[in-house]
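In response to reviewer comment 3 from the previous cycle, which asked for concrete evidence that the modeling workflow produces usable outputs, we include below a single protein chain processed end to end. The sequence was submitted unchanged, and the resulting structure tokens are shown without manual editing.
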Amino acid sequence: MAKLGKKEILPKIHFLCTQHFTMHWINYAIPVLLSTFTGWVTTWIAIKMLFHPRRPIRFMGITIQGIFPKNQQQIAEKLGQVVGKELLSFNDIEQKVTNPDNLQKLRPEIEAHIDGFLRTRLTEQFPIMSMFVGDKTINQLKTAFMGELESLFPVLMKNYMGKLQEDLDLEKIVKEKVAGFSSEKLEDILQQITRKEFQFLEFIGAFFGFLIGVIQLLIGIWVK
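The workflow returned the following structure tokens.
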């Protein structure tokens, strides 16, 4: 057998080492990649099953339906309770509406309206009064009207809110609105709110899949 020279041996050794490393690298990488993909796709399927299937499907005696479509009525009831009692209570609305600051914000418009009424419409209805009503009298009447309105405004608004509360059931309105949403509409609303969170969950699923793959690989190498 002919002896191989140094120049011929070194390339062969390099080739064998490279081939051995490549084969082992592939053997190591494939399980980790599969584990990463499994973690991602499992999380993706779990997220999809929140909304799908939209209508009940019976399979081998088991009814399958997305969590949100299946519990839409209960979600509507709970959301109505939260909105009606916690987020938007009539007590909070009443405090905002009857706040005297609201009247002060409207004061310039109200004074302008009263001034126009006393100077124009009143004298048109009762022409003779224009002989007795001057600027001083108009200003006195306007001040008296505004004072009376300031004391009357909170009482009127409180009574109005009381009657409105009897006629307007916020909890019922929210419940009927949410319960009346189509499955597509409900999914679209929730996706708009939680899209970034769902994407983050997919990333977390892939990360943990990768982590499990690496741990399994290290255990396999250690056992060998």
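The first strand starts at residue 57 and ends at 59. We consider this sufficient to address the reviewer's concern, and the full set will be provided in the supplementary archive.
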